[in-house]
Amino acid sequence: MAQGRMQFFSNSMKRITEFSFIIPNDVNAFEKLTNPHFTRPAKTLILLHGYSGIDTDWIWGGGNANLLSRKYNLNIIMPTAGNNFYLDRKSCNSKYGSFIYEELFDYVHKVFGLSTAREDNFIGGLSMGAYGSMRIGLMHPELFSGVCALSAPYLFDKFDKMKPGDTRGDMDYEYFCEVFGDLTKVKGSDADIFAVLENASKNKDALPSIYLACGTEDDLSRDNHALRDALTAAGVEHKFEEGKGFHDWTFWNDYIQRGLDYLLEN
């Protein structure tokens, strides 16, 4: 399999950025005969890292991207986007969402000659990357036929109560203001996954297949229950799973496979 890391100039961020990739282009004949996923051309998964992560996390940081590529015949593209929740800011050099669904998508498909057909493209991620993949997938169903979101934070309902000096884990008020802008205006905005879902569900037939999962010992379990309930209330087809597990690679490496099993069957 071809594996590497590439750099290119991003107009969305006005700087050189990088992404890692795995292309299953040299799987042996025996594997092709015994693996039904190789009876079709490879599909593509854009796989997003979490808070404090980088593009290599899914390869060297604990993830199992090599296994996923070989098992499911997937081209896997893993970008770096910093601790920015894959959101666009007002400044011209901070378009972290547009970078994923416009610039990176176009770039990798042209460079590697990948299929741009909706049915051949998925997006997924863990934690912050799961939030990013869910948001981008709901906002751009014309690009992606499936979303796999693991252990995502979705509940920003108390942002409007935060004040200077407040913290959430190792993130503080100033950081949230930098990423989300005016915290009193996050609810109902396009950073609010529940508002994004409400808008996207107006055309349910166009939505991608949705898979979400979270460990029962994960502090973000409540967030995922809330989105599960919102999807159900909106009549949006999805699959939600939870099982014993924390916010760690043991859970993610297992449930990313369960998620891909679901997306490739639906």
Write the layout of secondary structure elements.
Blueprint: E1 2-10, E2 15-23, H1 29-34, E3 43-48, H2 57-60, H3 65-72, E4 74-79, H4 96-112, E5 121-126, H5 128-139, E6 146-150, E7 167-168, E8 171-172, H6 173-180, H7 193-200, E9 209-215, H8 221-233, E10 239-243, H9 249-265
Parallel strand pairs: 3-4, 3-5, 5-6, 6-9, 9-10
Antiparallel strand pairs: 1-2, 2-4, 7-8
Helix pairs in contact: 5-7
Quick summary:
This protein is an alpha/beta fold and 266 residues long. It contains nine helices and ten strands.
What is the CATH C level class of the largest domain, in words?
A: Alpha Beta
Helix-strand sequence: EEHEHHEHEHEEEHHEHEH
Number of helices: 9
Task: Look up the CATH topology of the largest domain.
Answer: Rossmann fold
Number of DSSP-assigned strands: 10
Overall 3D form: globular
Q: Please tell me the CATH architecture of the largest domain by its name.
A: 3-Layer(aba) Sandwich
Structurally, the number of domains stands at 2
CATH H level, superfamily name of the largest domain: Alpha/Beta hydrolase fold, catalytic domain
- The helicity comes to 25-40%
User: Could you say which structural class the secondary elements and strand pairing correspond to?
Assistant: alpha/beta
Mean pLDDT: 96
What ranges have pLDDT less than 50 throughout 5 or more consecutive residues?
A: none
Rg is 18 Å
